[in-house]
Amino acid sequence: MFRLRNIKTFVLTFGFVALAVNAGAQNSGSGTYNFRNNYHIGFERPEAWGLKYFASASLLSGLPAPLVEHSAGSITVGLEMDWVPQLDAGQQRIGFNGTAPEDVNKAPILARPVVRIGLPKRFSVLIAAPPPFGLFGVRAHLLALGVERPLIVREHWTLGWRGYGQFGNVKGAFTCPNSVLAFAPGSAGNPTECVGESADVASLRYAGTEFQFSYRIPRNPKFIPHVAAGGNFVDAVFQTHAPLEDGMDETRLWTRGGTFSGTAGITYMVNKKTAFTVDAFYSPLWVKRNANAPRTNDGLFNVRALVSYTFR
Questions:
Q1: Range of the domain at 112
Q2: What is the pLDDT of residue 118?
Q3: pTM for the full model?
Q4: Fewer Cβ atoms within 10 A, N terminus or C terminus of the chain?
Q5: 36 in a domain, yes or no?
Q6: Are residues 199 and 240 in the same domain?
């Protein structure tokens, strides 16, 4: 009986201590808490729409290689410049299921070097990555990889295939930018109740494949029109790290789903080794702006350009 009573006393005491430690971890004594929720969100929620919008802006899609034979060991280097359209006030209301604005109008362009290396059997690999330093208030750590091969080659046209993927993230103050800190927490200028600049992380991962058709104009072979169509699987995560009036918000949101994309453009061959390519890109992106809103298409349309030079 004595031992049983001691065991009960120990269990109760340990329970109270555990509760006290847990409370101390959440409450620092100033009434603040850490929010570490992990939510899976539907692929058509506003938060998911924002993630797939910017993942689509970084797709390694279109801008095909000119109609030249890429032998094993050939190296083509280029610079890609993609226009990233700025979102209006309604489109920026993607936080909390479409009720809170997020500062996502950061970088107006995506610039990244692209390297294509020729392999045996007409295969080529592609490597593309934006600079890893801070620019326009964001820091991108993204690496896109691809493999491509012509499937049918004729005198004036080519049908090709490409598979590609990306991993990495973009860091920035999306939830609590510096511009809202001048307003009182909870006011119209600071509805999220920010008390400091956030350090949020958006992981923009995807895998996709596309088919490309290129045609060399016989009377003017320097111009090569082309089109491409593909399908993509987006696996994206938004990790909040925002100091709010009630505590630190470290909510994690993740989503995944499929998208389609298409490009159309033209390549101008400056000479046998130098090419300039311009593409128009479009991807339909479906979204429900709130729980009662209809399902609508708010797709991404942008223009992309690539200057490339082949060494051998």
A1: 41-310
A2: 92
A3: 0.86
A4: N
A5: no
A6: yes
